[in-house]
Amino acid sequence: MSDTPLLRESCYIDGKWVKADGGGTIAVTDPATGARIGAVPDMGEAETRRAIEAAHAAMPGWVALTAKERATILRRLHDLMMTHQEELARLLTREQGKSLAEARGEIAYAASFIEWFAEEGRRVYGDVIPSHAADKRIVVLKQPVGVVAAITPWNFPSAMITRKIAPALAAGCAVVLKPASETPFSALALAALAEEAGLPAGLFNVITGGSRAIGGELTGSPLVRKLSFTGSTEVGRLLLGQCAPTIKKASMELGGNAPFIVFDDADVDAAVEGALASKYRNSGQTCVCTNRFYVQAGVHDAFVAKLAERSRALKVGNGFDDGTQIGPLINPAAVEKVEQHVADATAKGAVVLAGGHRHKLGGSFFEPTVLSGVTQDMLIAREETFGPVAGVIRFETEADAIALANDSEFGLAAYFYARDLGRVWRVAEALETGIVGINTGLISTEVAPFGGVKQSGIGREGSRYGIEDYLETKYLCMGL
Ligand SMILES: NC(=O)c1ccc[n+]([C@@H]2O[C@H](COP(=O)([O-])OP(=O)(O)OC[C@H]3O[C@@H](n4cnc5c(N)ncnc54)[C@H](O)[C@@H]3O)[C@@H](O)[C@H]2O)c1
Ligand SMILES: O=C[C@H](O)CS(=O)(=O)O
After folding, report:
1. Percent of the chain with pLDDT over 90
2. According to its UniProt record, which residues of this chain constitute the active site (predicted)?
3. Is 384 in the pocket of ligand 1 (CB under 6 A)?
4. What is the band of 3 on the pLDDT scale with cuts at 50, 70, 90?
5. Which ligand is closest to the CA of 337, given by its number?
6. Which of the residues 251, 382, 407, 425 has the least number of beta carbons within 10 Å of its own beta carbon?
7. What are the CB-based long-range contacts (under 8 Å, 24+) for 430-435?
């Protein structure tokens, strides 16, 4: 990794590259090989407090710029990301494991949020409201919410960060980011490019270390006015509670349990393509990966046979190897969870049609797996598997499918394949999720509002809606 100029083994606070006060570090390993690829500072409360204070001090100068001046710097950051796309992608694959092709795609996706919100920041409009009284005038302003704390997951080490810092910076906010300890280098590389783009010191701070200590400071500080979190529902619930004493604004992008419904009137071949895309992206480690398949009786056997055949043909390997489609899971614990879901399902009667075991490569590799005969009571239908396992449940009627799909505390993404127009509208409106993919398995884009309902989260990221969460609305009542 020493040949990677963007590799930073220090944190970035107030425009300086610094080590932890106590000198402690956290090792970072390659999930494909288990090899140590570097280390980052093990920071705590004191460093976090300094980062928050730096962000708070830097904001006024940033707010004083025009939206266009902020957009110019963000645009420069976008261009630098794309210039360094290959290096950023290699860094990302090394620490997260996804294929190089997917990593290149993630860097472009991450950069697209910077490009999108550079422009959205120039369209933060207020209002002039017809007054209620002849001697009054009413104006509405939109102003930056204040210092933003961002905490992000390991599965998209670049895009989950820019999906937060882009609207925050475009709105005029400063950010303190804690990335996942498994994948810190992509975050630190972003800080290096932001520095090169001319982002003033203190506006983007990246700290690594103990999540409880750092998180406690970020959620407890009165200087932090907003928490933007992406991660598991369990941790989101904890952090939301920690924000309560200081009444922080909170955006929560949490866990999923996406249903994928195939109706009798679907194009089965198209449904299989969509299923492969939605299930096996990032080796099944995305919040919007299909977690449970529901297939109507008339097409069930044809669909599962084709899905199993295609799953068996997927290439499992190191993300750097040509043609790899399924990389390693992030760590051994992730493999154990996948194994637990497969074992629970087969113990309750599910049938393995493809895969079902740890891959012969060993380590954190798992075979792409298809199970039929799955039922709603199995762990694989109740919990987020976060691995390359497709469990298929047969259903009879449209009403059954909707009831089964909505039988979850999660509500992030759902997918279905159908060609009857009336059915498309009935099902799309009935599904209790924030996102619905219709005759497609891929829904991720910066231009659309991304987020969930129920215990999958609060708020939306991306699109023209995404900047609203970083703004406050101020009402001016002007007496004449
Ligand atoms: N909805 C979305 O947009 C979205 C996107 C990606 C991932 N996710 C979800 O994230 C999960 C996988 O990511 P993960 O394993 O990194 O999730 P996680 O919740 O374990 O960790 C997420 C982040 O929170 C930090 N963290 C953990 N405990 C903390 C604490 N007590 N205080 C402060 N910070 C803490 C982690 O270090 C990491 O940076 C899955 O559930 C997935 O569905 C959701
Ligand atoms: O893991 C969930 C992320 O949000 C992935 S994506 O935004 O759907 O690409």
Report:
1. 99
2. 253
3. yes
4. low
5. 1
6. 425
7. 430/402, 430/406, 431/259, 431/402, 431/405, 431/406, 432/405, 432/406, 433/258, 434/460, 435/288
Which mutation among 224, 235, 409 tests ligand 1's pocket best, with the greatest number of atoms within 8 A of CB? 235
Q: How far does the centroid of ligand 2 lie from the alpha carbon of residue 120, in Å?
A: 21
Angle at 214 between CA 210 and CA 216, to 5 degrees: 120
What is the token pair recorded at 366? Answer: 């798992």
Catalytic residues, by residue number, are 253
Asked whether 215 lines ligand 1 (CB < 6 A), one says: yes
pLDDT tens, 148-193? 999 999 999 999 999 999 999 999 999 999 999 999 999 999 999 9
Q: In what order do the strands lie in the sheet with 127-129?
A: 127-129, 136-144, 471-479
What number of other Cβ atoms are within 10 A of residue 451's Cβ?
Answer: 25
Q: If you count DSSP H runs as helices and E runs as strands, how many of each does the chain have, helices first?
A: 14, 22
At 4 the pLDDT is 81
Q: How many CB atoms lie within 10 A of CB 222?
A: 11
Q: How far is the CA of 110 from the centre of ligand 2 (A)?
A: 11
From the CA of 159, give the closest atom in ligand 2.
7
All domains of the chain, ordered by start, with CATH? 11-254+456-479 (3.40.605.10), 258-438 (3.40.309.10)
State pTM to two decimals.
0.98
Nearest-atom index, ligand 1, CA of 457: 1
Mean residue pLDDT across the chain:
98
Quick check: helix, strand or coil at residue 103?
helix
Burial class from Cβ neighbours inside 10 Å (0-12, 13-18, 19+) for residue 375 reads middle
Q: Give 230 Cα–ligand 1 centroid separation in angstroms.
A: 6
β-pair type (204-206, 435-438): unpaired
The residue whose CA has the least distance to atom 8 of ligand 2 is: 444
How do the residues of the chain divide into helix, strand and coil, expressed in percent and rounded to 5? 40, 25, 35
Lookup: tokens for 215: 């998180």
Shortest-distance Cα residue to atom 17 of ligand 1 = 231
